[in-house]
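Consider the tokenized backbone below.
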């Protein structure tokens, strides 16, 4: 292993689970240095192998899946000593204990990726929240066409992008937690897509449920796939059968909490035979000499009072349901502190937290928490896969891993896409440009306050005119537009009440006056993105629309110019916008998974470049005008050529006539 630093302690401050300390020998095809690595890569390429690199590799769940799909993982990097020892044992090539927050390390990794001829760059960079100031700096550079100077920060998703920029491999695969993408502005994901597209990649992203690919647990992951040269990527088909907890671990022998085998790390528990298809797959690579053995089938001891509590629990029992004498924690905070897994259902998500106490993962039939091997099975690690370090380190590596089954499906889909050079759909930048051009060229709008100059005008129109017939709202908008501030509205109270009576919306008029009264006493609230929705009478939806339509400058002044704004544009997943996204994509994102699939579909239409805000406003106008719920005006729509539903309607018409 190259430059592995001996750290005096684990970076994870977790009380260790005592037990055998597993030490693993390096893989027979380990490369001692970069020269040997490049020779190794050249030999594999000459044999027709597709090469992959796995950054932030952890123990190697993604690497194992990619190799099962047909890649050879020859380069890996992380900064966790025990996880790297595990990875180095199972995979050949060069394993680097490098901090990829260091710009010089990033450059060297990119050089190795390029010189080795790596086809697929994969990884799951940890993602830290970004400050508003940091987001603004990046967004400004993106919109001005400038490259973000990587060395100003140590955010590891930036490191991953920098390696892509420098090496430009044919394919990129990134996995992460959904929260990386689903913040209010979807900042990191939209930035990544924009920069990858600017480098010439076709990008697809999706939040996937891993159980749909044979993983026996509820676990969602954000997956981003980028293919160079405009290759089309098709998401892998789902597996037909859902694997349950008992399908996965029912063949493993019973053990008591705290049981340890004789022989330490080389010890085992007697094993009989696999019964289900999943169990047989878990045993495929086990050597014949170990057919009657199962390793790492150990877990933490069980306290006597916990054993009594576990005995009383069914799969539906919550911690708060236990008798008070059985509780060691506050049940108002830890309502689900204990969870017995349902053998006929999916496991809850296996996370690194399992290294701490395991109470979320009580065995479905035995009064103990899961063993290392059971947790590994639920993550789809085969039984021959061992983990370096003490049991706590093994649990942590399992919980942090990408399920190998998911990696295998994704790797196979990437290979299929590279072998089938079909052109990809237009980029988000192109779609956003189309929407923005259409919107800015409109003469008459069904939602005319999308061109308002103050946030108060947007709030006023949304409260008083929302869902009004377009002809009426267009005629009334000039009257409301005169009142640029809450003070203006209160000064025209008599006229506002009269307008409200004309249109039969007296209660809305009263609501508007009440909001104006509150804002007159706190005028800064209108320019504060975080406080605006806290005002009684202003919903989050209305606040987000005002923020999107009228951004603010660094000093808090409302401005209409996108380039000078410091406020972030939220991604609005309103019902009308979701309807447009569903029709364009051909997926029913307006009916299911609106906060995940729906928002991702909207983000694909608006992008994150100079056209993003205008494209977003255009999407709102499109939903209110042409893309109606019934009888949409497809022939006038700027997205007609991209719209799956429009093309399907056209084909049906051709069949009829």
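A designed sequence for it:
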């Amino acid at each position: 292993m190259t430059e592995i630093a001996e750290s005096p302690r684990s970076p994870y401050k977790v009380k260790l689970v005592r037990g055998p300390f597993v030490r693993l020998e390096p893989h027979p095809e380990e490369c001692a240095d970069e020269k040997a690595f490049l020779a190794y890569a050249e030999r594999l390429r000459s044999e027709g192998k597709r090469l992959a690199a796995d950054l932030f590799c952890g123990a190697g769940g993604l690497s194992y899946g990619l190799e099962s799909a047909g890649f050879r993982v020859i380069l890996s990097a992380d900064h966790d000593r025990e996880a790297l020892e595990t990875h180095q044992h199972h995979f050949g090539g060069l394993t680097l204990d490098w901090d990829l927050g260091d710009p010089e390390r990033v450059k060297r990794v990119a050089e190795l990726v390029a010189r080795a001829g790596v086809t697929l760059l994969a990884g799951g960079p940890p993602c830290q929240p970004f400050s508003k100031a940091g987001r603004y700096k990046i967004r400004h550079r993106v919109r001005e066409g400038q490259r973000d100077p990587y060395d100003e920060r140590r955010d590891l998703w930036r490191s991953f992008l920098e390696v892509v920029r420098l090496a430009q491999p044919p394919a990129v695969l990134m996995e992460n937690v959904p929260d990386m993408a689903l913040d209010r502005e979807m900042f990191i994901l939209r930035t990544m897509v924009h920069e990858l597209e600017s480098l010439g990649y076709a990008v697809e992203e999706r939040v996937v449920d891993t159980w749909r690919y044979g993983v026996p647990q509820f676990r969602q992951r954000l997956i981003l796939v980028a293919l160079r040269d405009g290759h089309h990527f098709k998401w892998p088909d789902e597996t037909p059968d859902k694997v349950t907890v008992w399908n996965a671990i029912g063949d493993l022998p019973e053990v008591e909490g705290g049981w340890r085998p004789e022989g330490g790390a080389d010890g085992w528990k007697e094993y009989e035979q696999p019964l289900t298809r999943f169990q047989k797959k878990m045993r495929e690579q086990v050597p014949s000499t170990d057919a009657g053995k199962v390793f790492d089938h150990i877990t933490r001891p069980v306290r006597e009072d916990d054993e009594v509590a576990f005995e009383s629990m069914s799969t539906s029992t919550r911690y708060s349901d236990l008798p008070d004498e059985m509780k060691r924690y506050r049940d108002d905070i830890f309502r689900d502190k204990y969870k017995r897994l349902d053998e006929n259902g999916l496991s809850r998500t296996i996370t690194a937290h399992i290294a701490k106490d395991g109470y979320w993962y009580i065995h479905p039939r035995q009064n103990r928490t899961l063993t290392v091997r059971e947790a590994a099975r639920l993550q789809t690690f085969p039984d021959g896969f061992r983990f370096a370090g003490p049991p706590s380190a093994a649990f942590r590596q399992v919980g942090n891993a990408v399920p190998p089954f998911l990696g295998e499906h994704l790797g196979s889909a990437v290979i299929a896409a590279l072998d089938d050079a079909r052109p990809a759909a237009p980029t988000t930048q192109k779609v956003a440009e189309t929407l923005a051009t259409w919107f800015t060229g409109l003469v008459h709008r069904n939602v005319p306050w999308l061109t308002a100059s103050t946030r108060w005008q947007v709030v006023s129109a949304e409260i008083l005119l929302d869902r009004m017939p377009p002809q009426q709202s267009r005629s009334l908008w000039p009257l409301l537009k005169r009142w640029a501030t809450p003070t203006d509205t209160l000064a025209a109270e008599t006229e506002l009440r009269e307008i409200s009576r004309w249109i039969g919306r007296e209660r809305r008029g009263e609501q508007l006056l009440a909001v104006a009264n509150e804002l007159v006493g706190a005028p800064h609230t209108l320019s504060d993105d975080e406080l605006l929705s806290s005002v009684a009478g202003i919903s989050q939806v209305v606040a987000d629309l005002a923020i999107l339509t009228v951004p603010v400058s660094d000093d808090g002044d409302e401005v209409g110019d996108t380039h000078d704004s410091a406020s972030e544009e939220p991604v609005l997943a309103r019902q009308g916008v979701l309807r447009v996204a569903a029709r364009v994509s051909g997926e029913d994102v307006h009916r299911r998974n609106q906060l995940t699939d729906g928002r991702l579909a909207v983000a694909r239409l608006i992008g994150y470049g100079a056209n993003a805000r205008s494209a977003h406003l255009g999407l709102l106008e499109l939903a209110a005008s042409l893309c109606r719920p019934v009888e949409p005006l497809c022939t006038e729509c700027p997205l007609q050529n991209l719209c799956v539903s429009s093309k399907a309607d056209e084909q049906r018409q051709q069949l009829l006539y």
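Residues 428-441+572-657 form a domain with the Endonuclease Iii, domain 2 fold (CATH 1.10.1670.10).
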